[in-house]
Write a structure and sequence with these properties.
single chain, Protein-Tyrosine Phosphatase, Chain A, Rossmann fold, 17 helices, 6-stranded mixed sheet, 20 strands, alpha/beta, 3 domains, about 475 residues, UDP-N-acetylmuramoyl-L-alanine:D-glutamate ligase, 6-stranded parallel sheet
């Protein structure tokens, strides 16, 4: 019996009606399944009118808002949980019956996909940092190579939107794909056990989401669970925390050192740092638009994943330079003030900021400095790994936000400010031509902004306003 058939006799509850929850609702509704949606927010939609639209579009859905409904949750046979919901903190885990199956949308997708005659192939990526860049690079390469691929998980479309159902016999759905490239967060991996990926990579591990996962070891174990669900494990030689006994299948590695045959690394050839496949020179870093060592590793991991899927290595390398990267990830802001302004607002944890500083410092001349703007909601992270980098002569520090003072303790000469605008204004006056001003907060943005994107946009706006005011004075 197929899972979809089994679901018809189950009490299904969708917890959370955000983007993921709405994806689940659309899918379950299309199967004519009976289910309940429960959200703790009284008005879970951005506008009341959107809630009216929801009820009009899904009239058979029982929508319960304003609290977690204990009796509904207790009665559930299938609980589909949005990744942002912490079952322990909310107390929901105490309500779940032992026979209830708890899953996320990705797990539901995988269980159904595994039963299909022609399942959609999967490449999967997780890690504390760089995963959005890597999956977006993979999606770009797939497109230029003529591979019919989709991008989903923690980015792109909801994964359930990619399913072409068996009842649509001989019909090709508009969103059908042959390959799905998945970015997976630790929250999604908590409820994922059935993925059968061609290859999967854990890019790196650093303190992140410890407010939910409690310890780095627990967070590491959750991330490493991705290896059990793939044929090929793509590991990072530079980060011992990514290497696991769970990865007992075929291994392909990448790293910043010289690589053995069949693996990816970096090498210096003709006085230029090159991406390498064993001893084979692929392309020099200076030919690629994404700067820094951390982005060199992102390139290598994407190549390793594509190679695992049977993509032409030559064709991938030929097209690498066409990918310009993602907004708010070491994004260079063009100005005429001879200062290098870098927007890395997506750096929401310590590891991302360390990667940015370590990758960008070597690009500066000996006479120039890097001015770091950091701070926000640290999510319980330990900031001490930043201390060594922050206490070098080449780095200056500006702090802000909820946990800015904790970062400031790492460097006594730091400058505290109360806004991005104040940080930009100070940095502009402090910086000399050739210096770099880097917004890489090492923290989440929710203490001051809606999300990291808004934080980055405000940073860019302040820089542009600074340029406008200078022109006005002239």
């Amino acid at each position: 019996m197929s899972l979809l058939t089994e679901l018809k006799d189950k009490k299904i509850v969708v917890l959370g009606v955000g983007l993921t929850g709405l994806s689940c609702v659309r899918f379950l509704h299309a199967q004519n399944l009976s289910f309940t949606v429960n959200d703790s927010r009284q008005v879970p939609f951005a506008k009341a009118s959107l809630q009216d639209e929801f009820l009009a579009s899904f009239p058979q859905v029982n929508l319960v808002t304003g609290h977690w409904h204990k009796e509904i949750i207790k009665a559930a046979d299938i609980l589909i949980v949005s990744p942002g919901i912490d079952l322990e903190v909310t107390g929901i885990n105490k309500l779940i019956r032992p026979t209830c199956q708890v899953m996320g949308d990705v797990e539901l997708f995988c269980q159904i996909n595994n039963q299909r005659i022609n399942p959609i192939s999967i490449l999967a990526v997780t890690g504390s940092n760089g995963k959005s860049t890597v999956v977006s690079l993979l999606a770009y390469l797939a497109k230029v190579l003529g591979i019919n691929a989709g991008l989903g998980g923690n980015i792109g479309q909801g994964v359930l939107d990619f399913l072409t159902l068996e009842q649509a016999v001989n019909a090709q759905a508009a969103n059908q794909v042959d390959l799905l490239i998945l970015e997976l967060s630790s929250f999604q991996l908590e409820t994922l056990t059935s993925m059968q990926a061609i290859a999967a990579s854990l890019l790196n591990i650093s303190d992140d989401h410890l407010d939910r996962h409690k310890t780095l070891k627990n967070y590491q174990n959750i991330k490493q669970g991705i290896y059990r669900q793939s044929k090929v494990a793509v590991i990072n030689r530079d980060d011992p925390l990514t290497i696991s006994p769970l990865a007992t299948q075929e291994l392909i590695s990448f790293g910043s050192d010289n690589a053995e045959e069949g693996h990816f690394g970096l090498g210096v050839v003709n006085n230029k740092t090159q991406l390498m496949f064993g001893k084979q020179v692929l392309i020099s870093l200076e030919q690629l638009p994404l700067a820094g060592l951390h982005n060199a590793l992102n390139y290598l991991s994407a190549l390793a994943l594509g190679y695992s899927a049977g993509w032409s290595l030559t064709a991938m390398v030929e097209n690498l330079a066409g990918f310009s990267g993602l907004s708010h990830r070491c994004q260079r802001i063009k100005t005429d003030d001879h200062i290098q302004w870098i927007n890395d607002s997506k750096a929401t944890n310590v590891g991302a900021t360390i990667a940015a500083i370590s990758g960008l410092l070597p690009t500066l001349s000996a006479s120039n400095k890097l001015i770091l703007i950091a701070g926000g909601d640290g999510k319980g992270a330990d900031f001490s790994p930043l201390k060594t980098l922050l206490n070098t002569d080449a780095v200056a520090l500006i702090t802000l936000g909820k946990d800015g003072d904790k970062i400031a303790e790492l460097r006594p000469s730091s400058i505290p400010v109360d806004s991005i605008q104040a940080a930009v204004t100070f940095a502009s006056g402090y910086a000399n031509p050739g210096d770099m001003v880097l917004l890489s907060p090492a923290c989440a943005s929710l203490d001051m902004f809606k999300n990291f994107s808004e934080r980055g946009e405000v940073f860019i706006t302040c820089i542009n306003q600074l340029s406008t005011s200078v022109e006005a004075e002239l």
